[in-house]
Each structure stands twice: as C-alpha cells, then as structure tokens.
Amino acid sequence: MKKTCTLFTLVIALSFSATAQIKKGASLLGIDLGFNGSNFKQEFTGNEIKSSSTGFNVALLYGKAIKDNLFAGGSVSFSSSSLKQGNPQITQTIKTYGASVWTRKYFPVYGPLYAFVNGSLYATIGNNESPNNNPPKTNSFGLGIGVYPGISMQLKKHFFLDASLNNLANIYYNRTSGNSTDGLGNTVKQTSSSYGFSTSLGNNSNPLQLGIRWIIPGKG
Fold it and tell me: Whole domain around residue 169: which residue ranges?
C-alpha cells in the first residue's frame, strides 16, 4: 500500500511538471503597472516645510517563446511622477518614455505556480517641468540593463498574474541637460551625467511591481 501511494504521488508530481511547461512558439502579451507615493514634514520654530511625491508607471509587452519556458520580446513604457516641496511650494512633474528588449525564463514550481527571472536592455527619454520654469526645464536620456525575479500564477487557461521586484539589480547611464538664465539674463546651458549600479532591496520608493500576462500557445 505504501509503495502504491508513493508511486501515485510520483505520477501526480510528474503530471504537474509535464503540464506546467510553456511550449516553444507560445506568444506573450503583457501589462505592467506600478505606483508609489511619499509624504514628509519638518517643523521648527515658526516654520514648517512639507514635501510629497506621487508616481505611476505602465508598460506594454510582447514576446515569443524561443524555447520551452524561455521568452524573448520587447516593450514600451511610460511613467509620470509629481513632486511638491519647500515653502513657498515648488512643483515638478517628471515624464519618462522608454523601450526595451528583454528575455524571461520561467521555472515551473507546482501546478499553476511559476517562478521567473527577467532581464532587459532598455533606453529612456524624459523631461522635468515646473510652473513658471522654476526650476528650469531639463531633458534626460538613459540606458541600462536590469534584472529582476518574480512569481507568476496561472489563474485561467491563458491568463497569468505576476508579482516581481522591479529592477532588483540595475546597471545604468543617465544624461541630463537644460537651460537656465543668470542674473544678467544670459542663457546658461547645464549638462550632467551619471552611471553606476543599483539595487531596489530595502528601497521603499520602489514598490512591488504587478503585471498581467496572456500566454497563448503556438499552432502545432
């Protein structure tokens, strides 16, 4: 009896493993959504300084399974954030547009549950604007490589829900430029660049990323 139960369990486990594979040729359509916000207040004798920020991002993805459980594809994205700070209050709005090429490897865990690792090469352009041009408008350009893990749950036949740590590891280069005016009315052009490596571990401003995926089997 014990051997029979063991054999039955093994057959069930193997059947789950077999049905969990995402076959070569499948198509992936996806939407990623993110949101973040923060508030800060500092009080001292006769004065108070407040600041707050809100932001969101959305991305549309398409990919193709080049091997079982391995996808390659591309995406386009948009993000917007607003910052209010100081006394008198200064408002800034930052908008960023992006595109990327990516690969994603799925690892069947059990039944409808998968783990995955996603890697991407991306480029972004953006601008930072303020009412009355204070601070002055700036434009930005960025390149980077990002890697992040996550889990994916198959809720229906072709419908999956993702949860991931967005940009867990990130190598980046950013360039920002803008014009301002000095006290004599002369135009001053400013350019800055930055590069480095970052991780979102322990970064509360980079929340859990939620995604929706449709994985449609290929023909044949």
Answer: 2-216
Q: Helix %, strand %, coil % for the chain, to 5?
A: 10, 70, 20
Q: Which amino acid is at 194?
A: S
What is d(CA 218, CA 25) in angstroms, rounded to the nearest whole number?
Answer: 5
User: What confidence score (pLDDT) does residue 133 get?
Assistant: 67
CATH number at residue 36: 2.40.160.20
What is the reported pLDDT for 7? 42
Which uninterrupted H or E stretch holds 128?
strand 113-129
Instruction: State the total domains in the chain.
Output: 1
Position 16 scores a pLDDT of 44
Nearest to 142 by CA among 94, 99, 178: 99
Q: How would you classify the pairing of strands 47-67 and 70-85?
A: antiparallel
Higher pLDDT, 37 or 24: 24
pTM of the model: 0.73
Q: Are strands 187-199 and 113-129 parallel, antiparallel or unpaired?
A: unpaired
